[in-house]
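thought: user wants a sequence for this fold. calling inverse folding tool.
action: design(structure=
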């Protein structure tokens, strides 16, 4: 979702009225206001009629002359006001053009530095672009600076040749340019953690990290994603810590589609998903530690459709699903561990339709199903360990119809006998009738 960008000063300048039209409308407005005030006074003082027999004496004539001069003076003031208004707007537009020109010159110099063969010069270009984004005259110029930094991260880079003595120079060069990339990631995280509307805040801007390899730390702790589009689609998280702890996803789109979590730590602990869309569709969790512990899903849509959990440790422990639509439909749990321990499903919907549990350790131990709809329709339980020990089913609609394989551990005990009408189980899972 792209936020509506306010018009810049140049765009507003093009809509200035011509002087003649502005004066005409100003005079018309003044006459209408004066007439309205006069009429209001007449009604207020309860004048019914004006004496038409009165003679025009010298005093009345003098009053009329003063009134005429007052009208002329008021008209002159209106003309001066309109002219001053237009002069001010023209001066502002000129100042904006000058600021834009200086910004463009600095922008060109910073981009040239990014193309330097020297890592130190590139690092200077990174800081120069970040500073330009902070001081940009309008949102479009700020967005351009952010786009260039993102594009740099998307450029292909030579992998580390290793610290073998025969490749020592290449190894040092790789480390130097890696420092440049990590600096960009650090600056992005720092700016997105600043409250929207404050100086140096980039919240509300678009951030395109599609296909980027994030092999270092990145801090989105406490960030608020309430507008614009932020894309980590196809990104690879392979090292360091990328923290979304206490982040708030309340609007716009933050996409992790087809991202790969293959190393490092990516915590979303205590994050709040209250609006917008946050898709992890087709993402691969094969080696990272990813935590949604104590996260709150109270609005919007969070999708893990067709995600593959094949080696990571992914935790939703004590998370609350109270209003969002969360989809694990078609997800494959074939390795690693995924924990839903102590999770509260109290509203909204969480779907595991057609999910495949074939090798992971998936735990719903002590989960509470108390008011939501959680379908496992068509799910396959063919391996690994899926457990519902100490789970409680008090009001939610939990469907296992058309599920295949063995019943998950502890499920029948947690459901109880007789099976509540809100829980649907395959016929071959039902306990034998005594």
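)
observation: tool returned 434 residues.
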């Amino acid at each position: 979702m792209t936020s509506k960008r306010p018009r810049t000063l140049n765009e507003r300048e093009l809509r200035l009225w011509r002087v003649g039209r502005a004066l005409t409308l100003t005079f018309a407005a003044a006459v209408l206001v004066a007439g309205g005030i006069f009429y209001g006074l007449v009604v207020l003082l309860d004048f019914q009629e004006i004496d038409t027999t009165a003679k025009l004496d010298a005093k009345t004539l003098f009053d009329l002359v003063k009134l005429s001069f007052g009208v002329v003076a008021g008209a002159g003031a209106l003309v001066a006001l309109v002219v001053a208004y237009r002069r001010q707007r023209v001066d502002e537009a000129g100042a904006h053009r000058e600021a834009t020109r200086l910004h463009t010159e600095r922008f060109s110099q910073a981009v040239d530095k990014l193309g330097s063969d020297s890592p130190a010069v590139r690092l200077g270009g990174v800081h120069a672009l970040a500073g330009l984004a902070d001081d940009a005259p309008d949102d479009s110029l700020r967005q351009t600076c952010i786009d260039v930094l993102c594009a740099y991260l998307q450029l292909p880079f030579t992998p580390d040749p290793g610290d073998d003595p025969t490749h020592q120079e290449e190894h040092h060069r790789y480390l130097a340019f890696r420092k440049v990339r990590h600096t960009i990631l650090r600056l992005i995280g720092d700016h997105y953690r600043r409250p929207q509307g404050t100086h140096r805040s980039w919240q509300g801007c678009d951030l395109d990290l599609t296909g980027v390899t994030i092999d270092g730390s990145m801090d989105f702790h406490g960030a608020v994603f309430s507008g614009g589009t932020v894309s980590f689609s196809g990104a690879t998280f392979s090292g360091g810590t990328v923290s979304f702890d206490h982040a708030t996803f309340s609007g716009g789109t933050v996409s992790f589609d087809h991202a790969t979590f293959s190393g490092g730590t990516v915590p979303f602990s205590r994050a709040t998903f209250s609006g917008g869309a946050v898709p992890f569709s087709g993402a691969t969790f094969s080696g990272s530690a990813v935590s949604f512990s104590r996260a709150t899903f109270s609005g919007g849509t969070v999708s893990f459709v067709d995600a593959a959990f094949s080696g990571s440790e992914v935790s939703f422990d004590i998370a609350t699903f109270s209003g969002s639509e969360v989809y694990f439909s078609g997800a494959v749990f074939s390795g690693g561990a995924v924990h839903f321990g102590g999770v509260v499903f109290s509203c909204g919907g969480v779907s595991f339709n057609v999910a495949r549990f074939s090798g992971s350790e998936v735990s719903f131990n002590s989960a509470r199903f108390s008011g939501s709809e959680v379908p496992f329709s068509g799910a396959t339980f063919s391996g690994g360990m899926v457990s519902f020990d100490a789970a409680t089913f008090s009001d939610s609609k939990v469907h296992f119809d058309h599920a295949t394989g063995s019943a998950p551990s502890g499920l029948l005990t947690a459901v109880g006998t007789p099976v509540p009408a809100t829980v649907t189980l395959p016929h071959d899972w039902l306990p034998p009738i005594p």
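thought: summarizing for user.
answer: Here is the designed sequence. Residues 1-14 have pLDDT under 50 and may be disordered.
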